[in-house]
Structures are given as structure tokens and as C-alpha cells.
Amino acid sequence: MATRSIVPQQLKDLTEGWSKWDIALYVGAPIALGVAGLWYYNRSKSIGNEQVGSGDYESVQRPHTSGSVSDKPSPKSTSKPQAQSRQELAQAAKNSGNKCFKEGKYEEAIKFYTEAIMTCPPDVKGDMSTFYQNRAAAYENLKKYEEVVEDCTAALGLNPKYSKALARRSKAYEVMESYRDSLEDITKACLIEGFQNQAYLMAADRVLKTLGKVKAAEKYKTKSPTKPSTFYIDNYLAGFVNDPVARCFAPQSTTAKLKDLGISMKGGAGGQGEQEEEEADKIGDNGAVMVDIPSAFDRVKNCLALKEYDQVIPLCDEELENERSGKIPEALLLRGTMKLLQGMGDSALEDFTRITAMAGLDKTLQATALIREGCLRMQRESAEECLLAFSKAETVDPDNSDVFHHHGQQLLQLEKLDEAMLKFDRSIKLSPNFPTSYIQKYYAVHRKAIMTENMSLLNEAKAGFEKAIAKFPTCSDALILYAQSLSDQGKFEEAEAYFKKAQQVQPLNANNIVHRGLMMLQWQGNVEGTMSLLSEALKVDPTCQYAYEIKGTIEVQR
Fold first, then answer.
1. Count of CA atoms in the C-beta half-sphere (13 A) of 63
2. Which of 26, 100, 313, 531 would bridge with 108, disulfide CB 3.0–4.6 Å?
3. Where is the composition biased (Low complexity) (predicted)?
């Protein structure tokens, strides 16, 4: 396929002068890494490049130069054996080391590799680099990662394009939690191999995700509150079926809204208002409107209905100051939700944990608080606490589809794909008309297909996406995720069509425009086109952090 051959060269042209870190950011963008596409293209061909593994050492005997010594003895030669050269002795020591390595005798292997290093002439750089790399492999099996880094560095000093040494050092850095160094090494290895080594690509994907989580967790601790867009809030709440907060968005007539706010029309035809409650004031004798003063919580519900989100937290604060309020749990959930959406994680978590500690609450309200607590725990890299919160939520409200849907999403992040699919199936059974669970399920199938290189699962995911789109034609999430799966397979024109459909369905979704721009970069190497789409995304939603991050990375390099 033409795309396969031009993408690596386009990438090299595009990234000329970039640091290894910036290349990794580009390569590792959600739809730009191309791990899935490379597998899809290469699935029928064996990959000749050597894999990254703990048993990976050089065993090939390198040719050597030894002056004019002939392989055959001359007729006049005596039975006395010729003295071996230092290079030959070093190779013999290496071979002994390899034998010990195969037998799992790593300490002995290290001694032989060390002998090879000490014996070999230093100007025979190819052999020397191999000896260091082999010794690093033995150290790796003994979990001596600092020694692995030291020997790989020595090997690379002799042979800077030694991709195997780069990959091994990357793996050691990863174990040592030096993720940025690890990413730089594995990215360089990918570049040297022309992005054709599946193992290196998968390692780059893994390290990039880990680094991203670490950086996100660090940033999250110091993140200042930000005002999210109306679309962002609406889209978040649309991800729930039974959320008590989302219920405040249900369409109501004006009369119903007034009634819900505690406001009643009390004017009389004769001109004088009727006093229906003791606390009501008489406003003259001209048939004026008599009103009850609504509580802070009633007013915050009106703000939600009118999308006046700035007032939500202050009004919840006011409601919570009223010790006699009967809406404390609801106000905590509302306030915690808005704090979560503004990046105020610590404060939001306090509100949710206050709710979950209360007894005798409405089960849906308590389960929703547990869902949000669980998601926050995951953001903080506390997977165990996250899953515990969801386990509690399932016990509290076992018939709530939201619990299973969001539990599935967290399992998806942990790459527990089979478990995630079971949760999505349960959510679908409880809420068969909620489209997002269908989409997330088939995204999990797609992920598993890529990870296991299973064409049958890839076809199942494709059929599932298409069935979901037919059932929910106006669901932008379905269109976007299907477009990404097509892009993974190098089907860029089809993916482009679905990205455009998604934009028609949800024109205010800036993230969709960013994804489309990244695909254009992968597909055509069109930097200007990508930048134009990123600018378009920021016009649609000036608060779109994703667009700023991608645009900033490209702008710095230009």
C-alpha cells in the first residue's frame, strides 16, 4: 500500500530538527501513533527485526581481520597451533557467555562478557558494542538496572545507532521510573528501525501512556480552577442516565419551572392578591404577583436549567450554610460535580466522600457520588481505591446502568478489556437506549483486537460500530470512535467522512476537530492543514485544552 511506504518518510521530513521528546509527542498522539495500522498492514508478513526481551543477546559471530593468516595450514606448517588474536579470544569468551546465558547462569555469563570486553582491541567497536549489550542483557535478568543503563550507554558510545541497546536501556529506564529518558530512547529506536519494529512501537505506546499519566497527575495537584465551556459541562452530564444533577436539565414548561422554584402566581381577578401563606407579603392592591422566596438550592436548579453555571458553587455554598436544609446531600453532589469539572479535585473529593459517608440516602444519589469519587481516584493514580469505590456503588445501586458504564471506562484505562466489556454489557442490559455503552464496548473490542493482533475481533468491532451508528445515527461519540478505528487501519478517507459526520451532528465538539487534524497530519503530513483545524477547534471552544497542547507542540518547532 502506498500509504505504508510514504508515512515513515513524511514523518522524518516533518520532524527534522525536532527533539526526541517532541517526536514522541507527535508519534504518540491518540490516533497518530499508528501501532494498529502497522500491525494491520504487516499482519501477513513476519517482522524481521529482533524483539525486545530479557533473553535478547547477540550470538552472531562477526567476521574478523587477522592479517594474512590463512584458514588452512601450509604444507610446511608444524603441528604447533597458531596463537589466537585478541579479537578471537574475545569472541570465544563471548560465546562462552552466551552458553551460560542460555542456561540461566547470568553471573557466569557476566564474567565471560567482561573477559570479552577486557580482551577485545578497543578499536573493534562493533564487537565491543555487542559485548556491552550482551552483558546488559545478563544484568537485566538479575534486575540490576543501573548496570543495564551503564552498559547500554557504553554500547551506544561505540555504536550510536544500536537500536537493540536503545530499546534495552529504555526498558531499564522504564523500570527505574525515568519515563522521559525511556521514551527518548525507544523513540530513537523506532526512528532507526523506520517505525517497522512492532515491539518497539508497542513499547513506545506503553511508555508514552505511563508518562502521560504521571505528568497529568503532577499537573492535577497544582491545577488552577478553570471555567469549562457550556458544551463541556453538557457533554459530561450526557454521559449519565440516572444522574440526579443531570435531571435538573430535563425540559420543563415555564409554569413547571416556577413551581419547581417555589414561585406561585397568586394574583386575583378583582385586583387584590390573595394571601395563601402566612409568610407571603401583600404587594399592593393591583393584582401583583405573590411569591415565596426560593431557597438557594431551588435557585441553583434554575441556574442549571438556564446554563448559568457560574452561580452553581456559590449557591450551593449558601444552601450548605443552612443547618436546617433538607438538601445537604444534593447540594454537596452539585457542588462537587462543578468543582470536578473545574479541576478542583481535592475539594470535589471532599464533597463526594461526605455524601458516601452518610446513611439512609437515596441510592441513586449515593451511587453517583461513588462513581465520581472513583473517577477522581483513578485520576490520582489510585486504581485500587477507584475500583473499590465502584464495587461499593454496585452494591448500593445494582440496577444503575451508570455504575457499570463508568466502571467499564475505568477498567478500559487499566487495559482490563475483558472485564470492561462485561461491565458495558451489563450497562446495555439495564439501559438499552443509552448509546455510549455500546460504543465503549466496541472500542474495547477494537483495543483487544489490536493488542492480540486478532483480525476476527477487528471485524467484530467494525460490525459493532456500524450497528451502533445505525441504531444511534446522531451519536457523535459513535462516529468519532469509529473514525479513529478506521484511521488506525490506514483507511483515512473513510475516517475523514465519519469525522465530518460527527462535526455535523455536534458542531461544538472541539475535540473532534483536533482528532481530525491529527489524522490529517498522519495521513498527508499536512502541517498547515492541521494547524488550521486546531485554530478552528479553538474558535469553537476557546477552553479546549487538547487543542492548545497539540498546537503548542507544533508551533514551538516551527
1. 3
2. 100
3. 68-81
56 CB contacts (<8 Å, ≥6 apart)?
50, 137, 164, 168
Return the pLDDT at 379.
84
State the Cα–Cα distance between residues 85 and 160, nearest whole angstrom.
27
For 14-23, the CB contacts below 8 A with 24+ separation are: 14/521, 14/525, 14/527, 17/557, 18/557, 20/183, 20/184, 20/187, 20/188, 21/180, 21/183, 21/184, 21/187, 22/553, 22/556, 22/557, 23/187, 23/191
Q: Is residue 162 part of a domain?
A: yes
Q: Within a 10 A sphere around the Cβ of 440, how many other Cβ atoms?
A: 24
Residue of 187, 207, 226, 242 lying closest to 396 (CA atoms): 242
Structure-block grid coordinates of residue 148: 543495564
Closest CA to 396 of 357, 349, 338: 357
3-state secondary structure of 18: coil
461, HSE (Cβ side, Cα atoms, 13 Å): 26
pLDDT digits (tens, 9 = 90+) for 147-173: 999 999 999 999 999 999 999 999 999
Q: Do 304 and 199 belong together in one domain?
A: no
Strand runs labelled E in 328-403: none
Do 140 and 22 share a domain, yes or no?
Answer: yes
Q: What is the CATH number of the domain that holds 171?
A: 1.25.40.10
Q: What angle do CA 118, 120, 125 make, to 5 degrees?
A: 115
Contact 26, 553 (CB under 8 A): yes
C-alpha distances in Å from residue 234, one per residue of 221, 240, 306, 433 = 25, 11, 12, 19
Residue 143 Rama label (left phi>0; alpha psi -120 to 50; beta): left
The whole-number pLDDT of residue 439 equals 94
> What secondary structure letter does DSSP report for 198?
H
**Count of domains observed in the chain:** 2
Coil, strand, or helix at residue 83?
A: coil
The sign one gets for the Cα dihedral 31, 23, 513, 434 is positive
| Amino acid letter, 408 | G
Among the listed residues 532, 483, 529, the one whose alpha carbon sits nearest the alpha carbon of residue 506: 483
Which residue ranges of the chain lie beneath pLDDT 70? Answer: 1-83, 216-224, 246, 248-292, 552-558
> Rounded to an integer, what distance in angstroms lies between the CA atom of residue 439 and that of residue 418?
15
Which of 489, 553, 478, 543 shows the shortest CA–CA distance to 517?
A: 553
**330 & 393 share domain:** yes
Helix axes 510-524, 545-557, angle to 10 degrees: 30
pLDDT value for 297: 85
> Which grid coordinates belong to 482?
469509529
- Model pLDDT for residues 228-259, shown as the tens digit of each residue: 888 888 889 889 999 887 675 554 443 343 34
What type of residue sits at position 83? A
One-letter amino acid at 208 equals L
